[in-house]
Amino acid sequence: MVTLHKKGLPAWVEVAADDTRAAIKFYTELFGWTSQSIGGLSGKMNPYQPTQWLTYIETDRIEQTIEDVKAHGGQIYMPATEMPGGLFTVASDPAGTPFGIVEGTGMNDALNEVGGICWYELEINKAFDETVEFYTRVFGWEPHKEVESPEMTYLTVDQMIGVFTGPDFPSYFNNQSQWSVTFDVEDVEAFAKKAEGLGAKIEAVTQNTPYGDFAMLRDPQGAFFVVMKPNRSTK
């Protein structure tokens, strides 16, 4: 089971969109959420920011973490800023992957529940070893190697995060390193069709894997996310 609010692990997600009202409408109709249920829905901090789900990693000393990020090859895009319940900033790792850092009470209580988050994944298309080392040094990760082959390398962290790379980086990642978030649903195929009916794009559907069924989706404004019906016996 996932341990909630553990330092160095994801504690919050939000989707940054050009049209916040349209994003709220899409996700509330799709999942039945309120806009505050699980993640945040916000406008972009600047017009160059991609439309995406942003994963926030928890720390108990944000100013020290900011210095650690810079010392180990990452970048910080804004100073620590107050938010309800704590402080946050936005950073990127050595592969250029955007992510957030939050100090304060973790806010994701709906993990491993239908409609909630069941997995986070870091997909890396360059500087793989350097990037894994970055998270290890900055956030204290202890990665476990699940797969290492010519086709892919896959690590897991604390039964909560997957870390992926491979020579054939999936095109639906837009050839960029990214954090993605996976939501637990009961029927992947029906959910993907519902999302498509609301304007989403279905990037891929994978069924009957040892871990469950998946659909990779992109919302009407382009933010990538995954839905999954987990194989409950593997959780």
TrEMBL record:
Domain of life per record: Bacteria
VOC domain location: 116-230
Listed InterPro entries: Anthracycline_SecMetBiosynth (IPR052164), Glyas_Bleomycin-R_OHBP_Dase (IPR029068), Glyas_Fos-R_dOase_dom (IPR004360), VOC_core (IPR037523)
One Pfam family this sequence matches: Glyoxalase
Name of the protein: VOC domain-containing protein
Biological source species: Lactococcus fujiensis JCM 16395
Biological classification of the source: Bacteria, Bacillati, Bacillota, Bacilli, Lactobacillales
